[in-house]
Amino acid sequence: MGFDFADEQPKLLMLMYGLVAFVVVVGGLLLLLDVVPAWFARRREAQLVAASAGGAPLPRRTKPREGLFALFFLLPTLLLLLIGLVVPAIRTMLLSLMDGSSTNWVGLRNYGWMFSDDSIVRVLINTLVWVLLVPLVATGFGLLYAVMVDKARFEAVAKSLIFLPMAISFVGASIIWKFVYAYRGEGDQIGLLNQIVVSLGGEPKQWLLESPLNTLLLIVIMVWIQAGFAMVVLSAAIKAIPGDIVEAARLDGVSPWQMFWQITMPSIRPALIVVVVTLTIATLKVFDIVRTSTNGNYDTSVIASEMYNQAFRYGQNGQGSALAVFLFILVIPVVIYQIRNLRQQREG
User: Fold this and answer.
1) What is the DSSP string of 190-237?
2) Helix/strand/coil for 98
3) Phi then psi for 281, rounded to 5 degrees?
4) Beta carbons of 231 and 160 less than 8 angstroms apart
5) What's the protein's topology in the membrane (predicted)?
6) Are 315 and 98 in contact (CB under 8 A)?
């Protein structure tokens, strides 16, 4: 099967246009960021030289001019945020109030559909299970790893191995675990889990077809990936505990268990909150694992995967947009809590 340049010419032209546009935009921004400050600096230097030569008082910077200068640098960022975030968000909200073809207004009917359709209710329950289990379990394993390998002999090697899954994409990790859960009817199993079951005298199962077990097995993949992130953050927080506090507690004769609950846990509380909040947001948006492992079948779909299916597979733009808006609403309280928590830490 050969490659025909004539057939692929439109795609190649589109790729070339994209590359040219990228070079022009990024190169233009870099040029402006280099030329404009240098021009203002030369102008300011000329004013200072002229004022010094004429014996006049040195000109002062005016706040309006400084504000315009700051706005100039913020303008590209604000423009990109407007194009890439604000406008799509507003458009998605409007589409969520329309029918599947985005031609007729249906009001809040799509939101009512979310809570009345049994299959979508199942999706919402699955998402809730993910949000409840993944942050807590991943943070728990990360904390356990951090405590166990802290000041161990091969601490660097152990941390590298634990953190290694973070270097794998969600899709790659899902493919790896699909081989772990793989099923073969007769003979030797190619799936690690089924091979262990068979070696213990059990019967192999199609693990990803049995609900709700399949959802829990997909959650294992997410925990395996994110536990390394939690371990790194919490290990850094543990090492930041002042040594005099730890030494004073040991002189008071506290047990290791008391040291953990009375010294370590209160000291790393801010880091724990950051890890839980970060994992909660990542879990709410999980898509790759479900899409790669089961494609949302067998009662494993979550909001992000169902949003994709409704909008791009079934052509229901209104329902897909309603799910996207609902997901956005779920993320907002978590973000607000994190902002308030960081503000309290800064003020404290």
Assistant:
1) SSHHHHHHHHTT-----GGGSTTHHHHHHHHHHHHHHHHHHHHHHHHH
2) strand
3) -65, -45
4) no
5) Multi-pass membrane protein
6) no
CA dihedral of residues 337, 343, 345, 347 (deg, nearest 10):
-150
Count of beta carbons in the 10 Å neighbourhood of residue 295: 14
Match 């919402």 to its residue by tokens: 124
Give the three-class secondary structure for 46: helix
Q: What whole-number distance in Å separates Cα of residue 132 and Cα of residue 129?
A: 5
Q: Which residues pair with 256 in a beta bridge?
A: none
Tokens 């002999």 locate to: 153
CB-based contacts of 301, cutoff 8 Å, min separation 6: 122, 123, 126, 290, 309
CA distance 89 to 96: 11
* Tokens describing residue 143: 């904390």
Cα gap 82→73, rounded to integer Å: 15
Over the stretch 203-234, which tens digit does the pLDDT of each residue have? 888 889 988 899 999 999 999 999 999 999 99
* Residue 167 DSSP one-character state: G
Question: Cα–Cα distance between 126 and 300 in angstroms, integer?
Answer: 7
Q: State the Cα angle at 7 between 6 and 9, rounded to 5°.
A: 65
Instruction: Name the token pair of 340.
Output: 């308030």
Phi then psi for residue 186, to 5 deg, are -125, 155
Q: How much is the pTM?
A: 0.79
Q: Taking CA 37 as the corner, what is the angle to CA 34 and CA 42, rounded to the nearest 5 degrees?
A: 115
Closest CA to 273 of 168, 344, 167: 344
From first CA to last CA, the distance across the chain in angstroms is 66
Given the structure tokens 């994409």, which residue do they identify?
169
> What tens digit of pLDDT does each residue of 259-288 get?
888 888 888 888 899 999 999 999 998 999
Burial 33-42 (b: 16+ CB within 10 A, else e): eeeeeeeeee
Query: Residue 320 corresponds to which tokens in the numbers above?
Result: 């897909």
